[in-house]
């Protein structure tokens, strides 16, 4: 078996530590080309209850892989592989405080090669909707979520910062991580790698509204957050989405007047998931098409 350096195969949702590479993100990716190998072995720091990945070979349909212990052995042929973290037992805050750690990778023969690209990332930021949670009943499907679909349509690599229950005020039910902390870290005290993005899509406000945030609180939280976005993505086009439920639309319209670097896109005419918080698979497909139309 031959040890491979995993760093060049990992999406920006993974951070490097002395113990390996860590992530707390549904949809965190591992992508590579197989050349002459028959088996790829991935070793995790421990067994993670309920950890499942999804795999696509050469752009074909995704299929699920349950990681039963701390070692995953993949039988492979030559081709382009994408692995995404799909789900794990517990909620998003549990994952933030107990990150998934990928320790090492090995192949039996041949080579693993990174996917070479000079295309800038598209970055999606938000809550559980951005993460692709509860798309089928209570199951997350980041591989079928609108960020993944739009990245595929635009032929751009994807960076995702999406944490269930998060928002821009103390009213949001999950405060680990805060929206600001998630911009800069992939896990507690683990720096988020820089990804060169020229387009950033932000979708916050749903949880704040649903859990009783006042207009004043959201106004303050949004103002602080916009400044952080500028620090992080000062060279990118930043598109703010009015939440699908129309929450705080007037606040968004008012606050972006302070800046000249934001575009506001009103999603309320799209009528996405009017009966529930989380869009289903078909609604994510609609969001992708409508959002793409608003971006072009």
Automatic annotation (TrEMBL):
Domain SGNH hydrolase-type esterase: 124-245
Entry's Gene Ontology molecular function annotations: carboxylic ester hydrolase activity
CDD domains: Endoglucanase_E_like
Coiled-coil residues: none
InterPro entries: CtCE2-like_dom, SGNH_hydro, SGNH_hydro_sf
Gene3D superfamilies: SGNH hydrolase (3.40.50.1110)
Pfam families in UniProt: Lipase_GDSL_2
Superkingdom field: Bacteria
Record-given protein name: Lysophospholipase L1 related esterase
Organism: Leuconostoc mesenteroides subsp. mesenteroides (strain ATCC 8293 / DSM 20343 / BCRC 11652 / CCM 1803 / JCM 6124 / NCDO 523 / NBRC 100496 / NCIMB 8023 / NCTC 12954 / NRRL B-1118 / 37Y)
